[in-house]
């Protein structure tokens, strides 16, 4: 995920940088993983406008992201990397060996065709592990603070923490 800068042909373009989207491999989302995203348009339960200048805009669909990663022992292949308009992180589409499809947050370095897994033991790279099984110095993202709740910390784009000591992670 690199940055793209522009030539300063106007004063406002001088310092503009945007995220380069060259690593995104799929433009259309997976239909079965979409939900409608309801918006209020600034109206309350009576239909009255209570917040002005809110409304309109492009219709958005919510991509259901698997923050729990609860399919243990089933390997998954990364099929595509997609843009998510609802969050600052990109998402990766996984096809599991049992036929299930899910989105996960796209960690830096995960490429199309790679295999990911959820396991209890540390056996290979790109796994969803418990904190006590993570080797010190490993980059982590999508931390689950309480078992079963799903990832709650380190969920945005480019935000990865290094496990230099288990004490540092346990404070999260």
List keywords for this structure.
about 170 residues, 11 strands, single chain, five-stranded mixed beta sheet, two-stranded antiparallel ribbon, about 5% helix, mainly beta
Give an overview of the whole structure.
With 172 residues, this protein is mostly beta strands. Helices cover 3% and strands 24% of the residues. It is built from one helix and eleven strands, in the order E-E-E-E-E-E-E-E-E-E-E-H. The protein has one helix at residues 166-170; strands spanning 3-5, 17-19, 34-36, 61-63, 76-82, 91-96, 101-105, 115-118, 127-128, 138-140, 161-163. A five-stranded mixed beta sheet has the order 7-6-5-8-9, with no helix packed on it. Strand 5 (76-82) and strand 6 (91-96) form a beta hairpin. It is globular. The relative contact order is 0.15. Residues 164-169 have low confidence and may be disordered.
């Amino acid at each position: 995920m690199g940055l793209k800068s522009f030539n300063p042909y106007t004063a406002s373009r001088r310092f503009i940088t945007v995220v380069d989207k060259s690593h995104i491999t799929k433009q259309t989302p997976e239909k079965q993983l979409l939900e409608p995203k309801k918006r209020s348009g600034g109206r309350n339960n009576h239909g009255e406008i209570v917040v002005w200048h809110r409304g309109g805009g492009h219709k958005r669909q919510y991509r259901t992201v698997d923050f729990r990663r609860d399919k243990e022992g089933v390997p998954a292949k990364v099929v595509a990397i997609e843009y998510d308009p609802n969050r600052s992180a990109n998402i990766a589409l996984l096809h599991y060996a049992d036929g299930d499809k899910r989105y996960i947050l796209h960690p830096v370095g995960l490429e199309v065709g790679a295999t990911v897994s959820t396991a209890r033991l540390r056996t290979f790279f790109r796994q969803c592990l418990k904190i006590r099984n993570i080797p010190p110095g490993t980059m982590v993202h999508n931390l689950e603070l309480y078992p079963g709740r799903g990832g709650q910390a380190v969920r945005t784009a480019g935000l990865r923490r290094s496990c230099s000591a288990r004490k540092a992670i346990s404070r999260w």
